[in-house]
């Protein structure tokens, strides 16, 4: 069929609904729905663009509903044709509107000019008034001088002169009088104007100071906003993919239905809906795309609060969700699954034994060990060094393909092109029918179930395996954090590395006094969970949006109340005079606790972070709680007494005494635990070592009551508690102790060595 007869449609994954996201410990499964797709009669082609490059192309699956047949599915990894600037448009222009017009017009300047003009007018009027006063005074002086000048000769018309003099003097006086009144009034106006101008200047200075502060605050806010935009752009830049997956689905609305798989290269019929409407012209279908992606996972995290007064506790089980893919999953249902922690190493070969042949060889100086051939076989040594879980070959090739191609100088999409040699290397990887599965959590995690064993040897072995599993998990989380820089690149150039958020942990107890007692505690929704075989799933409440980020999100899964916490002490005073508190905790819930970091709070005080081992439902685990300062441990220096015995065969002897004093300063709690000490073990028949105190310990497994109350501590020494000594292998002596509140105990170890006087006792 010609290409022009194929009806083509393209859907960007950014605009496609996310139905659900199932997070596993090392990866995630994403299901997206495309609804109401209109198909024309004949052949149709649906292109789904923008799948994250971290997806496993062999896991991409397309299903659907409607009257059409899926004839072909192709998956291709192509350069990202989208523009970073077009997808994330900057709105900085809208934020800086009218910032440049703030100081163009200042209404205070007009008012100030008016006040200055008013002051100038008053000064001019005052000068005129003073001049009129001076004129009037001068006129009066002239009239007085003229009147005095006529004393020598009498005027012809004296009455007329007197009348004229009176009239002119009156006019001059009135001029002076009115001018003085006006001067005083103008001086008051001038003083008032001075005060008004001074007050206005102070107001202007204050207003301008406030305006400067406001402008500075706006500038800081603008800088913070710009910095936030830069951080947001840099964060988006880190998850901008160079390459994306494109899925092309070919459908036919005329072909007969043929049930088959919906994977690539197969023919599948999209299931019909419930309604049986007749086909006429265009039809509508819906598609569902599911795929597995790395760089998205969840890890457990716990808050453990213990109360030593009533031996109870509370475990708050949380999940940390991480997404460093290129996709944002909006308003989706989030499910957590533990399947990859129960069954791991998919695809790894099962070890098989081969015959182990040994023979005799001549003894030489280079092989003094006569039994070396019967200790480890060559096959065992080779298998342990070569068959360890290796890193994911597929992930390495993908990181080389997507993460380290240099950007060209020009901003054209050619920067995403791959060299011919690299393309030839990468082509077999994409064309291969199967791909090596990404490395999951190491198989040593499965051995963590041995932690529930009763014997100390099995527990020690499980602890070592758990430590190895923790290192593998930390490497995987580091790979998850670094994968963003390996697979994604920016269309804007090099970006800074992600800031470390730190793993500092702060435990908050809802029962502390930090909250007002009248207010109820904030409620946190818990997850619903279900278990099937070795896998447990947790459904997070509501819909959530998970955007790509190096910052993890926390979600509460469950709260587990511990009703019976067994607290005990372990003391090895010979090496350190301290009482180490240990807790044996039973998982009374039906939830399996995975291995993960835990914030520990003891009696309301936060102690720090520890690691919670894997613990199945109904099983128990142990935690070290550090040194308890309320238990005093004093270990004395050795006291030695040397003697010689015998007549014909003289024999040397040494009696050694070590004393351990333990005081329980708690006033309301009995302490129970174990004290470990040792005596030397002889490797020579002529050197004999005997235990004098505690008495009766001569063979391994012997048990005797031992210990005594401290004098002066309590009036009744017989009620201090109890202690039982046991002789273990390799010369160790274990005391099982129980000390009452406020009492003390004294444990004495005394042993004797006997040897020929011609020899000395030395350590091997």
TrEMBL record:
Biased composition (Basic and acidic residues): 221-235
Acidic residues: compositionally biased ranges: 91-107
Compositionally biased residues, Polar residues: 251-264
Annotated DUF4140 domain residues: 21-132
Sequence segments annotated as region (Disordered): 86-112, 212-235, 251-274
Residue ranges annotated for the DUF4139 domain, each copy included: 287-756
Classification via InterPro entries: CHP02231 (IPR011935), DUF4139 (IPR037291), DUF4140 (IPR025554)
Protein name: Mucoidy inhibitor A
Organism of origin: Heterodermia speciosa
């Amino acid at each position: 069929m010609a290409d022009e007869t194929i009806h083509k449609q393209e859907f960007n994954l950014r605009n496609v609904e996310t139905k659900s996201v199932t997070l596993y410990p090392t990866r995630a499964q994403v299901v997206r729905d495309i609804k109401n797709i209109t198909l024309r009669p004949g052949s149709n082609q649906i292109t789904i663009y923008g799948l994250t490059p971290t997806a496993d192309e062999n896991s991409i699956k397309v299903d659907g509903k409607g009257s059409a047949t899926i004839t072909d599915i192709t998956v291709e990894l192509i350069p990202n044709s989208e523009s970073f600037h077009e997808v994330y448009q900057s709105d900085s222009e809208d934020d800086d509107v009218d910032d440049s017009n703030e100081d163009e017009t200042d209404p205070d300047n007009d008012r100030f000019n008016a006040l200055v003009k008013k002051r100038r007018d008053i000064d001019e009027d005052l000068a005129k008034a003073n001049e009129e006063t001076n004129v009037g005074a001068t006129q009066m002086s002239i009239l007085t001088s003229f009147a005095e000048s006529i004393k020598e000769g009498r005027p012809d018309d004296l009455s007329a002169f007197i009348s004229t003099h009176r009239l002119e003097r009156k006019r001059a006086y009135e001029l002076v009088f009115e001018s003085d009144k006006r001067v005083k009034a103008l001086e008051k106006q001038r003083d008032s104007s001075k005060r008004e101008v001074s007050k206005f200047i102070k107001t202007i200075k204050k207003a301008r100071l406030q305006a400067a502060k406001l402008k500075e605050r706006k500038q800081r806010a603008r800088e913070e906003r710009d910095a936030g935009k830069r951080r947001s752009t840099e964060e988006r830049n880190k998850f901008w993919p160079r390459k994306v997956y494109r899925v092309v689905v070919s459908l036919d609305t005329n072909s007969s239905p043929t049930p088959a798989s919906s994977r690539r290269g197969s023919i599948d019929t999209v299931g019909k809906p419930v309604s049986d409407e007749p086909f006429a012209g265009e039809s509508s279908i819906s598609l569902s795309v599911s795929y597995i992606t790395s760089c998205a996972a969840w890890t457990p995290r716990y808050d453990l609060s213990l109360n030593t007064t009533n031996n109870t506790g509370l475990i708050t089980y949380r999940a940390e969700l991480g997404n460093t893919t290129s996709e944002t999953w909006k308003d989706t249902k989030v499910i957590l699954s533990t399947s990859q922690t129960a069954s791991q190493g998919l695809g790894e070969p099962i070890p098989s034994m081969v015959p182990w042949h040994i023979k005799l060889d001549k003894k030489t100086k280079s092989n003094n060990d006569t039994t070396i051939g019967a200790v480890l076989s060559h096959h065992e040594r080779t298998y342990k060094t070569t068959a360890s879980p290796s890193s994911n070959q597929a992930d390495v090739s993908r990181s080389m393909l997507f993460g380290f191609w240099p950007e060209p100088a020009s901003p054209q999409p050619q920067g995403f092109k791959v060299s011919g040699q690299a393309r030839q290397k990468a082509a077999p990887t994409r064309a291969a029918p199967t791909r090596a599965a990404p490395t999951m959590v190491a198989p040593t995690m499965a051995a963590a179930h041995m932690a529930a064993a009763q014997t100390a040897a099995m527990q020690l072995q499980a602890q070592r395996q758990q430590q190895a599993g923790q290192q593998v998990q930390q490497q995987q989380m580091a790979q998850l954090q670094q994968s963003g820089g390996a697979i994604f690149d920016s269309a804007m150039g090099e970006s800074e590395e992600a800031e470390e958020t730190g793993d500092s942990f702060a435990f908050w107890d809802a029962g502390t006094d930090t909250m007002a007692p009248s207010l109820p505690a904030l409620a946190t929704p818990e997850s619903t969970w279900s278990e099937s075989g070795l896998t447990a799933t947790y459904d997070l409440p509501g819909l959530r949006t998970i955007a790509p980020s190096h910052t993890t999100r926390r979600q509460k899964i469950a709260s587990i109340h511990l009703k019976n916490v067994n607290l005990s002490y372990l003391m090895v005073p010979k090496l350190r005079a301290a009482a180490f508190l240990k807790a044996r905790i039973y998982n009374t819930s039906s939830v399996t606790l995975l291995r993960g970091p835990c914030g520990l709070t003891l009696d309301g005080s936060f102690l720090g972070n520890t690691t919670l081992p894997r613990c199945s439902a109904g099983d128990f685990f142990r935690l070290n709680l550090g040194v308890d300062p309320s238990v005093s441990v004093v270990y004395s220096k050795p006291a030695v007494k040397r003697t010689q015995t015998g007549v014909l065969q003289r024999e040397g002897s040494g009696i050694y005494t070590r004393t351990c004093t333990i005081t329980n300063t708690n006033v309301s709690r009995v302490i129970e635990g174990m004290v470990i000490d040792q005596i030397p073990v002889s490797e020579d028949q002529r050197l004999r070592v005997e235990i004098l105190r505690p008495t009766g310990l001569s063979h391994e497994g012997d048990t005797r009551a031992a210990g005594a109350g401290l004098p002066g501590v309590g009036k009744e020494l017989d009620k201090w508690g109890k202690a039982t000594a046991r002789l273990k292998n390799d010369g160790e002596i274990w005391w099982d102790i129980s000390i009452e509140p406020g009492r003390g105990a004294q444990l004495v170890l005394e042993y004797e060595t006997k040897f020929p006087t011609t020899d000395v006792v030395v350590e091997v």
